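ok trying this again, last paste got cut off
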Amino acid sequence: MIKKELLNAINEQINFEFESAFIYRKMAIELELQGWTGFASWLTAQYKEEIGHAEEMIHYVLERGEKAELKDIKMNDLKLDTVVDYFELAYKHESLVSDKIDDIVALAAEKKDYATENFFRKFVDEQVEEEATTSAIVDRLKLSNSVAGFMILDQELGRRQ
């Protein structure tokens, strides 16, 4: 059994993971339309990863005998000016995800729900990697600052599985 306050936080996170997935998918669509197929492919992989996280969390909630609750996802239009803008948004978003995961781990520890704390720790570790990866992409894009450089990075990121 998961205490109500913690269950609510987990359900919020599940919905936030789906929202994150949609943000990445929208970004991928926009960049694909601009001809940046590698960047779009990388963001599509990110979309799939976020869906996977939400599904893992749903499974965890159900395994604990609780109900996972899905809400409507309301999205704003997403049209940014440059490739750098898209990846800066990705970095900021990953930082926000990290904060939310940290809050769940802290609440789980406070409520002495060590199973939930342990389950979410893998996401804490993963978020360190996600922030580092998106930050590095932003740095490389800013260093490149040329179409040729962007094309090389587009090709490289397009190889992500």
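PB: full thing came through this time. The chain is about 80% helix and 0% strand.
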